[in-house]
Amino acid sequence: MASILIVDDDQAQLTILQRILKREGYTVEIVEDSKAALENLEKQMFDLVISDMWMSSRFEGRDLLREIKRTDPDLPVLIMTAYAELNDAVNLVAHEGAFYYLEKPIQIDVLKREVKHALQTRGALGEPEAVNDDSTPEIQIDEIIGESEQMQELFKKMARILHRGVTQVLITGETGSGKSLVARALHKNGLRKDKPFIAVNCGAIPDTLIESELFGHEKGAFTDAAQQKKGLFEVANEGILFLDEIGDLPIQTQSKLLHVLEERNIRRVGGTQSIKVDVCVIAATNKDLIQAVRDGAFRDDLYFRLNVIPLHVPPLREHPEDIPMLVNYLIDKFSNEYAEALPKQVTPQAMSALRRYEWPGNIRQLENYLRRIFVLSENEVIDKDELPPEILDTSLPTTDVEFDIPEEGVSLEEIIKEYVYSALARSNGNQIQAAKLLGISRRKLQHRMQKYELQSQDFKTEL
């Protein structure tokens, strides 16, 4: 049975809230000031604290929150606030770790909903496994590699999420840092691992289609709606919906997503029936959502609803000590993918250069570079001379050449041909530039072009 501590200097409100939450089956303790609250927190364990914003002392509610976050960072705190204090409450949620805010006069259905959400993050509504935060979590991470302090902290947070059955996560990090890998690892190791994992890039779907994609549509809902279609929330029911690049979601769709997150039901476009969905939503973004809120491009209430459990994936330049491990992992991966390729080793000089480079494209850029070198090199050892020139001279612009590799895989010869084709296309048929992009000699490029029947003039575009 979940236990809740309520802190407010309004005795009448304390009594009302206690009565409501007891009827919901919770154990509820009430106190009238922060000092008594801290004394209770020292004596017994609580799963949730609900505190008034202002009490007898002007900053007492804020100070209580800070003390709770210092001693028990995972204990959720709901802040009660009047409309005039709303901006202060929002700041507590955004910057100081409050779970969410309850605006006075408090609506009973909102109170019940927010209490349930908060307790779910604590794992208090189920029977989560105990996690020893002082040990390295034993979870299958797959392609997420790292022994640095930053990565170990990420793994520990992932372990807490997995063991507590959290149903809402916001992953932040730069492009190429591995946010989608984190989302897939949470699915593979979580309670929903045998259920669907549906990923959608919110920025890749036209604004006119995004609602239909997420929520579905009824036959005849619009011109091209020839038949009923289930949305991704329905397809992902009981599983995980990964909303990548959530910062690109159109503002008009954000309010509907907020409704789904709060009520856990959807309504198809053109439909009248509400459909219950049980979906764990993992959102990811490379944008500063706080700034997007200030700019009016992202709803503040949706941000706070998504940011229940934040996970930050550090950029590669902040943990360069993990690069040797990543390089060895990727080399092994390529060796398994291309059985006919020579096994490769990286010289200490090349590894040193890889560690010094800042990797603006993060792990994705590192993988693209290594794959290209691995495929095109005819040597068993990757030396510094085979690295792209910008890695050795950071004043040069990036010359990353990449292409999409289908899930069913392609042969090594097709990979090489695609790299040559991509380099020629990017260089407008200029062989010297294309050879530089590929890190090979012009003569070797010409040999490849002859083999694949490629002509420079085929890639020239008229100005």
Automatic annotation (TrEMBL):
Alphabetized InterPro entries for the sequence: AAA+_ATPase, AAA_lid_NorR, CheY-like_superfamily, Homeodomain-like_sf, HTH_Fis, P-loop_NTPase, Sig_transdc_resp-reg_receiver, Sigma_54_int
GO molecular function: ATP binding; sequence-specific DNA binding
Stored SUPFAM superfamilies: CheY-like, Homeodomain-like, P-loop containing nucleoside triphosphate hydrolases
Keyword ATP-binding assigned: yes
Annotated positions of the 4-aspartylphosphate modification: 52
One Pfam family here: HTH_8
The keyword Translocase appears for this protein: no
Domain Response regulatory: start-end pairs: 3-119
Gene Ontology BP annotations: phosphorelay signal transduction system; regulation of DNA-templated transcription
Sigma-54 factor interaction domain sequence ranges: 144-375
Keywords for this protein: ATP-binding, DNA-binding, Nucleotide-binding, Phosphoprotein, Transcription, Transcription regulation
PANTHER family: TRANSCRIPTIONAL REGULATORY PROTEIN
Protein name: Transcriptional regulatory protein ZraR
